[in-house]
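Blinded run. Sample ID left blank on purpose so nobody reads anything into the name before looking at the predicted structure. Input follows.
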Amino acid sequence: MEDSWESSRRSGLSAARLPPPRAPTVSGALFTRRPKCFRCGDFVFGRDAKAKRTKRSQGLARLYGHFLMDELKPYIDRKYRTKRSPEFTGLGGSSLGGLVTLAIGILYPHAFSRLMVMSPSIWWDNFAIYRLVDSIEQKPPLRIWLDTGTAETGWEQARELRNRLIEKGWKLRKDIQYMEAQRADHSEAAWAARVEPALRFLFPSAK
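Blinded prediction complete.
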């Protein structure tokens, strides 16, 4: 995770006096500084049967999901005082991290119930995320923040993804919130600026 992302995120939360969620939240972008450990193929769930082993689309997101559920989250729960149930557990990421966040949430709703999906790489593997959403038979209990920036290439794809999620039963401003950030590009600074409203929606204050 780049320093600009982390510092902007912290300053935004501090200015808003928004307490961090009382649950472990893991961003797919967290591991981008360690390419030898996590590669693009670790963040995509579809496997291109025609692709060579050296190609990016290796479909390893399920392994990444199991790493989060079976190794990282148990470690966090042991080390820190957390509320361990899915109701209090969120996952978030941007770009490919956003893509894998939504995929893991759909595939493993028993582990994560709150998803921060920022500028997801919807086009990846010929829009495989559309097909995954379309395959949902029973809507899982997921609370989703989905956003994009209007200066991003193909930003309209996020609107289509929102529409498909709504068709599957999500209710706008109830269990899904969607933002089109005007003139925002595909950058860490743009994502950091949206962390505060995303967390406010995903972890609302108790009334």
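Unblinding after everyone has recorded impressions. The chain has one domain: 3-202.
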